[in-house]
Structure formats: structure tokens, C-alpha cells
Amino acid sequence: MSELQKRQIQLEVLRYNPETDTAPRYQTYSVPCLNEWVVLDALNYVKDHLDPTLSYRWSCHMAVCGSCGMMVNGEPKLACKAFIHEYGDQIKVEPMANFPIERDLVTTVEDFITKLASVKPYLIPKSDQPVSAGEFKQTPAELKKFKQYTLCINCMLCYAACPQYGLVPEFLGPAAISMAHRYNQDSRDGGRDQRQEVIATDEGVWECSFVGACSEVCPKHVDPAGALQQVKVASTIDWYKEHLMPWVKK
Amino acid sequence: MAKSNKPIFWGLFAAGGTVTAFVTPVLVLITLFAAMRFSPALFTYEYLHAFAANWLGKLVIFGIILLSLWHAAHRLRVTVHDFGVRADTLVAYVVYGLAGLGTLLTIIYLLRI
Amino acid sequence: MSSKPYVREMSKTTWFLSQPRYKRYMAREVTCVFIFAYTFLLIVALARLAQGPDAFQEFLNALRSPLGVLFNVAVLIATVYHSMSWFNVTPQAMPIQMGEEFVPGKIIVSAHYGAWAVVSLIVLFLGV
């Protein structure tokens, strides 16, 4: 069996210690990597052997938990999905854009959490049913309608990529609105009107200008950009119904 | 948070974007040929006047110009914001005002044919 | 919670220069300036059409200048870029579910390009 290819990588990491620093600064580590490694492996090597003070979030190491989002050479990536073989010998690692830096590669994500909660990302049944009424039935076609949007792992790479979120911090953002769309498209759900209170505002879906960067960086191929355009279409139809046919009950 | 009034402008933007995507390139090709002196048969006074004299022709011309105007106006509003100008209400009045002016002029001229 | 979170500033005027995908987005957005201008050209043409054959001929003469050619070429590039970027994203904005599966994006996009070609040919040869 042939030996795995070794590579010496210069990892340029943006550091920030809120207790001692006034501004972030770069620190470069020389890391012996294998070509099959991911950036997360390189970071773990730094923490284990070179600098235990380096702080970053990670967990599953297999792109399902959404913890390790960061900027790798200026591109929003999961560190566990950024393969060393994709890069040259100099790799720049920074915390996710558009979020405040808490410490080193750790960002403050409260804004996203609040916004996600505000869209009521849970099933709101059309009417209260007792347990004795039995389970919800759903055809494969009905499931397919929203399945794609269930794959979101809340990694926030889409927020790091979205320039409108960067320019207008009040923007609800791609993942939150996609999650609303996931429930709106679910045949078991009846909560769309409640979600529209938050979605159909200027800071809701209407801040989106379909840059499409969110879908380009999404590691789970959720296509939030598509979801948001579909939400715009539905919201526009709503608007015409409300204004041209106000007598029609929702 | 109040619901936005953007839907009305976005609906026109989307419809206009679709119409301009299909129709504007060939129209530009025609005016380009006309500018290069290869006037296509369409772009003569006789043909265009006959087309616009017909009520259906008027409707087609009005539809294309109206949707092109409101598509471009809404996109321009967003673009100006993207270039860093933070005066959205003023910009909206200006761009939609221009689109409105264009709409009015189109109606006036079409009614004169 | 951090004692002192650091907020990185984003330039409101030059942010799009930092990534190729942002530059492509701005190029797409800027096509609206050309389409807006061209539509007003059409309105002028309409005005001249309403004024009579002599006025329309004057309009044609004015169009037949280096500026007229340059303007149309610029608009042509812009409007073709608009069309392509519009058609390419249509499947994302309006997915079509038939039975269980969604119609593949490639089919929706090709149908648009096909219709674009047909419409263009029809209009180009109107009056011939």
C-alpha cells in the first residue's frame, strides 16, 4: 500500500482574544498535513501540538452537525469539508463573515438563533387533533415537496455568504426563511399565516435580491435561494389576494 | 413589523424580467441593424404604424414597454442600494416616478397613432 | 457570551469587488440601466412614429450614427446577459413537481432557451 502524501501547510489563522486584543491579528502555523486531510484536521493538529489556546467550534467531523463553519481562503466552508488537496500550501482561515467574532474562529451566533426561532420552525397543525385521531398521513409526493429544505444543518454558511445580510443586519436571512418555507410546504402544517407576519416584511424575504451566494456555499444542497424566490412568489400572490379580494377569508 | 408593500413592485419586476428576457434582445438586434443601415422589414414607418394603429398592436407595445419600465425601475432601486446609497424612499420615488412617466408617455403616444 | 465581540466592517460601496460571484451579480443587476435607457429609446421611437413619416425618418437618421451603433451594442450585451441569467435561475424560483419528482432544471432551462430562439426568429422576420 502506497504512503499517503505528506504536505507542509502554512495555516494563516485570524486570532482574537477579547480579554487582551483590541483588534484581530493573523498568526501563521506550519502544519505537517496529509493530502487527504481536511482543514479541521490541520486545526486539530495546531491545538494538539502547537497552540492549545486556539479556539474553534467543531463536533461531528462529517458535515452533519453544522458546527465548524469558517472562511477558508475567503470562502464560507465547513472546516471538516474543506479538503487540503483542494488548496495550495498557504491556507487562510478566518471566522465566518457577517458575524461578530467572539474569540479566534468562534463567532457570536445569537442573531441567527433569534431569527430562526422567530419564524416558528415547527409543525403548527391546521386544527387540534387528539392522539386517538391517529397519525398524519402523507404521500411520497407531499413529502418530496419539502424534503430538500429539511436537510439544513444550521451551519450559517449561507449567512456568511449573503451580502445583503452583511449590509443589512436586520435581514432575516436565508436559512431562517428556508426553514419557514420547509414548514409552509409541509402538507401537515397550517401555520403559514403566522409565519408570514415575520416573512412578509421588508426585513423578511423582501431584503433578498437573489444574489444566490447562499445556495452556492450550502454544503447540504438545500438551495435556500430557490426557497426564498418561491416565498416571494407566494407572498406576492398573497398580497394581490389581500388587496384585490379582501372578502376572501384566509 | 408591518408587512411590506414590495410585492406590488416585485410582481411587476418579475413579469417584466420574463418579458424582457424573451423579447428585448431581438428588439435590440433590430434597432442595431437599423443603426447599421440594414433596416429589417419590421422597422419601417409603414409596418410599425400599421402595427400600432391596430388595438391589439397597441396592447402588445404597451405591455412590453410597461413591463420593461417597471422591471428596470425596481432592479435599479435595489442596485442603487447595493452601490451603498442609503436613501431608499427617495430612490424609490425617483425610479418609480421615471417608470410612471414612461408609462404615461407611452399611453399618450399610442393614443395618437 | 463574549466580553467584547469584534465586528468586522463591510464596505457598503466596494463589497462586491471581493468575490467573483459578487461581481457577476452586480454585472447582472447593472443590466437594468441599459434596459431602462433602451426602453426610453423605444418611447422616443413611438413618439416619432406618432408624429408622422418625416419625424420617424429623422429618428432613423439619428440612430444611424456611431453613438447609435455603440449604444445598441452595449444594450445588446446587457440584455443577453440578463436573459441568460434569468433563464438559468428559473428552475430555482419556479420548480415544477410532476407526480413525485421535480422536472429536471435542465429541461426547464432548455425550454426557455428554445422559446427565446423561436420568439426571436419570429420577430426578426416580421413584415418580411
From TrEMBL, chain A:
Q: Which organism is it from?
A: Candidatus Competibacter phosphatis
Signal peptide residues on this chain, from the entry's feature table:
none
Name the family the entry cites.
Belongs to the succinate dehydrogenase/fumarate reductase iron-sulfur protein family.
Q: Keywords in alphabetical order, please.
A: 2Fe-2S, 3Fe-4S, 4Fe-4S, Iron, Iron-sulfur, Metal-binding, Oxidoreductase, Tricarboxylic acid cycle
Q: Mind telling me which PANTHER family this protein's record contains?
A: SUCCINATE DEHYDROGENASE [UBIQUINONE] IRON-SULFUR SUBUNIT, MITOCHONDRIAL (PTHR11921:SF29), SUCCINATE DEHYDROGENASE IRON-SULFUR PROTEIN (PTHR11921)
Q: Which cofactor names does the annotation list?
A: [2Fe-2S] cluster; [3Fe-4S] cluster; [4Fe-4S] cluster
Ranges for domain 4Fe-4S ferredoxin-type come to 143-172
Q: Which Pfam families match?
A: Fer2_3, Fer4_10
| UniProt name for this protein | succinate dehydrogenase
State its Enzyme Commission number(s): 1.3.5.1
Automatic annotation (TrEMBL), chain B:
The alphabetized UniProt keywords are: Cell membrane, Membrane, Transmembrane, Transmembrane helix
According to the entry, what is the taxonomic lineage of the organism? Bacteria, Pseudomonadati, Pseudomonadota, Gammaproteobacteria, Candidatus Competibacteraceae
* Ranges that cross the membrane: 12-35, 47-70, 90-111
Q: Which organism is it from?
A: Candidatus Competibacter phosphatis
What is the protein name for this chain? Fumarate reductase subunit D
The record's SUPFAM superfamilies line, in alphabetical order, gives: Fumarate reductase respiratory complex transmembrane subunits
Keyword presence, Transit peptide: no
Which InterPro entries does this one have?
Fumarate_red_D, SQR/QFR_C/D
Domain of life where this protein originates: Bacteria
